[in-house]
Structure formats: C-alpha cells, structure tokens
Write a structure and sequence with these properties.
This protein is α+β, with helices and mostly antiparallel strands. The chain contains 16 helices and twelve strands. This is Cytochrome P450. It comes from Bradyrhizobium uaiense.
C-alpha cells in the first residue's frame, strides 16, 4: 500500500455530492488512501494529467479488475501496442470524419423523431423522455446492435457501470451486471450473420472485418455500451438542467454568443459524467513524498481535477464563458475517450440546439428539484420539466 495519508469519507454522502470532500482532499491530502474505497485517490489536476500518460507506472492493465472480470478484456484495460491496435481497429467507425459524414445525420433523425413524440402533458421527466432514449438510439446505431430496444440498451449499460463501480462487492449489483453482459452477447450473436453479409460503419460491422478475436470484439462492444450510454444521457440532461438554472447563460447559448460545444465542454468540466478512472501501479513509484507499491489500485479523480482551483477560478460555478480547455473530462493520455467526437456531435451539434429550438419556454417545475447522484459516474436521476404547446 502507498505511504499516502489515510482520508476517511462518508460513502453515501460522497455519492450524493463528492465535490465538498474532493475540495478538502485537494487542500489537505491531494494524494490519499481512502479505506472505504480500498484505493489511493489522485485529486489534483496536474498529478492526474502527468500520471495518466505514464502507462509504465499507472497501468490500465488490471487482470483482477472489475471490468476485466465482468465485461471481458477490452482496450480500456490494455496498454501500449495492445491498446493501440484495438483502438486503430475501431477508429473507422468513430473517427471525426465518420461522425461528420455518417453519424450526425442519424443522430439528428433520432432527435427529431423523439421530440416529435413528446407532449408537455403535466410534468415530464426529461431524463426518461428524451436524454435516455436519444442516447440509446444513437448508441444502437453506432454499435450496430439495432436489434435491441432502447430500454435494454440503457438498462444493460447501467448494469455494467454499476458492476464495474461495485467496490463494496454488493452481490445483487454483480448479478445485474452479469445479466446485462449476457443480454449483450445474445444481441451480438443475433447481428453477426447480418453484418458479416452486409458490413456497415457500425462498431460491430467494422470489427467483424478485422482479425480481432471474437472475445475481444464482444469486450469492446460492451465497453462502448458501458460508457457510450450514460455519458451522453447524463450530459444532455445535466446541461439542460444547468442552463435552466442559469437563464442568463441559456440566453448566451440560444442567442449564439456562446457556441453549444463550449456549453457542453463547460458542463463536462463542472459535473464530469465520468468522474474517475482506475489504474494499477506497475512498479515502485514516488510522487513528491508519496511512495507507491506495485499492484496497488489508484483512482484518477477526473471530477476533482476539473474543479482544481489552480486551473479554474471559482471552480464550483457553472460558467459557459469559461475557458474549459484545461478540463480532462475525456481523459488526458493514450486512453483519451475514443468516442469523444461522437459524444460532442450527439450533445452539442444535435441534442442541445434541437431541444431549445423545439421546446418553447422549456422550464423547471417549481418545488420539484432535479436529483443528482454518483461519483465514479455522475448524472441527473430525474429532471422534472414542462414547456408550452
């Protein structure tokens, strides 16, 4: 175990709102062992920015990690050539060019169809009514698993991300994760013959044209689902909520003063949908006076890095005019999120402008505040709204 000081946390309170605790850690113990999580947390932006690139020390290869055990060995849990080879294999499906020329139009079609079906009859939970189905329909297209319902895509994604964040070992959570991966395997099996016969630009379609072993294909499709559903879903709902609670900033976005991409980047800094990424210490290492031992587990706390006072003035304030370029919401090293371009297109190019163009006088429900939760993955649990017909 590292020589980092111990820092105790209240796990339920940390799930409800990790930011006050993370601010204390940055001030008092920016590298600290948290017994309740069984891991050493890196909380400063600069420590994380440097360490994530040092894959010979902060390794993503975690044979005994929850992701490997529950989802299979995907590229996120590989380093060096093994990681880059699989990353290159999926690139044709999610490159910036493919996103612009192929996926963005499909995203827009999904948004239009879902918005056409929405009716402001009383209180509408915008997470369930738009953010969830839109993210899931887009992900169905990207993965090639168009044979599943959007409800299954969301449930299976949530089952997996709950499973890989199950550091307290809850057997019910693990069981739901196994059910999710079994459902995805069945959907893959159903689509393989069709996509072998008629390849397309989906992840499954592209990977079936490579020599990647099928077990790795399955693992990487599960990886795409685990992060590709909750991050856009939570970013869409969260950004809508942030703008509705900051009407002056909403006016900047709808008036064209601030581009939607800048709005999205600031939200992803302010409330990072993916708040943490785990690493395994591969060899003895020291950061300042903290010594690390091989095979101990370290959490890179992206959510904390994105509120680091050294880089962001008044970091707890949502401000779309802010320069968020120092944010590491998508990572900072060779494991930079491969789906970042697709996510930006879904949220900033399609969802946000469509929502505020189509839903007249979209507003929150007085007396029914939105609920937010999570620390490894953080997002709105609901968003009660209404709008004018």
């Amino acid at each position: 175990m590292s020589t980092a000081p111990h820092f105790d946390i209240d796990v339920p309170a940390f799930w409800q709102d990790p930011y006050p605790t993370l601010a204390r850690m940055r001030k008092e113990a920016p590298i600290a062992f948290v017994p309740q999580l069984g891991s050493t947390l890196l909380c400063n932006r600069d420590d994380i920015f440097v360490s994530e690139k040092q894959i010979d020390v902060f390794s993503s290869h975690q044979p005994e990690g929850l992701m490997n055990k529950l989802m299979g060995h995907n590229m996120m849990r590989k380093d060096g050539d093994a990681h880059m080879n699989e990353r290159k294999a999926i690139f044709p499906a999610i490159s910036p060019k493919t996103v612009r020329s192929h996926w963005t139009a499909q995203f827009a079609g999904h948004a239009t169809r879902i918005l056409d079906e929405l009716k402001p009859d009383g209180v509408v939970d915008f997470v369930q009514a738009f953010a969830l189905p839109f993210s899931a329909e887009c992900l169905k297209s990207i993965t090639g698993l168009t044979n599943m319902r959007f409800q299954d895509m969301n449930a299976w994604s949530q089952g997996m991300i709950d499973g890989i964040a199950n550091y307290v070992g809850d057997p019910a959570i693990e069981a739901r994760c196994h059910a999710a991966t079994s459902g995805i395997d069945a959907a893959i099996d159903d689509m393989v013959p069709r996509l072998r016969k008629t390849p397309d630009l989906s992840l499954l379609g592209v990977l079936l044209q490579t020599d990647m072993p099928m077990e790795s294909v399955r693992a990487n499709i599960k990886l795409a689902i685990s992060g590709g559903q909750n991050e856009p879903r939570d970013a869409i709902a969260g950004t809508v909520w942030a703008l509705l609670t900051h009407p002056d900033q909403l006016a900047l976005a709808t008036g064209g003063t601030v581009p939607w991409l800048q709005v999205f980047e600031e939200y992803a800094r302010w409330i990072s949908p993916i708040g943490m990424s785990p690493r395994r210490i591969a060899k003895p290492w020291t950061i300042r006076d903290i010594a690390f031992e091989p095979n101990e587990r370290v959490f890179l706390m992206f959510g904390s890095a994105n509120r680091d006072e050294k880089h962001f003035s008044e970091p707890d304030r949502f401000d779309v005019r802010r320069d968020a370029s120092k944010s590491i919401a998508f990572g900072a090293g060779p494991h930079f999120c491969a789906g970042a371009w697709a996510s930006r297109a879904m949220v900033a190019d399609v969802a946000l402008p469509a929502i505020f163009n189509r839903l007249t006088n979209l507003r929150l429900i007085e007396g029914q505040p939105a609920r937010v939760g999570g620390w490894a993955f953080r997002g709105l649990l609901d968003l009660p709204v209404t709008w004018d017909r």
